[in-house]
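Morning F.,

Quick status update on the modeling queue. The single chain you submitted on Monday has been processed. Sequence for confirmation:
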Amino acid sequence: MVEIVVKEMDPQGRVSIPVRWRKSFKSRKLALIKRGNMIEIVSVEALPPSALFDSIKVSEHVDFTDSHALKKALSELKEH
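Structure tokens below.
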């Protein structure tokens, strides 16, 4: 369902979001995405660190205590 509300920006460029819309957001953090003359507002949820476990595969031979070796291993991942 699409809902449309016309709002006016205040002198600082702020626009209020209707309360019932804000209540449906899962987070107070928002991403604003500009597409031409349109702005999309998306609720952004924080990820728990555990959600990132095993999300990057790095060689088991990398010394994680050596920041230079780790940086090199991660840059090699980008190349593939």
